[in-house]
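Hey team,

Sharing the Copper resistance protein NlpE run so nobody has to redo it. Sequence (150 residues) first:
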Amino acid sequence: MKLYHLLPLFLCLILVGCSDQKKPSSNAEQEQTPPDIHTSQNSLDWEGTYTGTLPCASCEGIETALQIHYDLSYELTMIYLGEDEPNTVETKGTFSWNEAGNTITLDNEEVPNQYFVGENYLSKLDMDGNRVTGDLAEHYILSKKQPETE
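Structure output:
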């Protein structure tokens, strides 16, 4: 019997048997790996003034400026555009972060007023706390106003 035909098979078995295979990690190893604890609240430079024009059902738009501070206070100015008389609403108060650390809620507002906090932007959320999707989604973004350099 000619064994040289079986030689490639033996070589493959030896190589596979000697390869450096990693063992699946145990539960103990997985538990030692800390979870990713980065959130908008602790990782982003979120303090500042955010501006934009939000959609409005009964006017041309709502020119919005929201200033949020590290002491969890805010100042909100909304100007309703296209009305016969200027209609400006200004409120101040405090805000709180959600448990995930990515959304703020303006505490002193009559209706839920929530914003998802991203890198240099706030995204106005709907009444249920969800991000607006579809064709109008980009109109619900307030951009962070960069400080002027001298």
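The CA atoms of residues 82 and 150 lie 35 Å apart.

Ping me if you want the raw files.
A.
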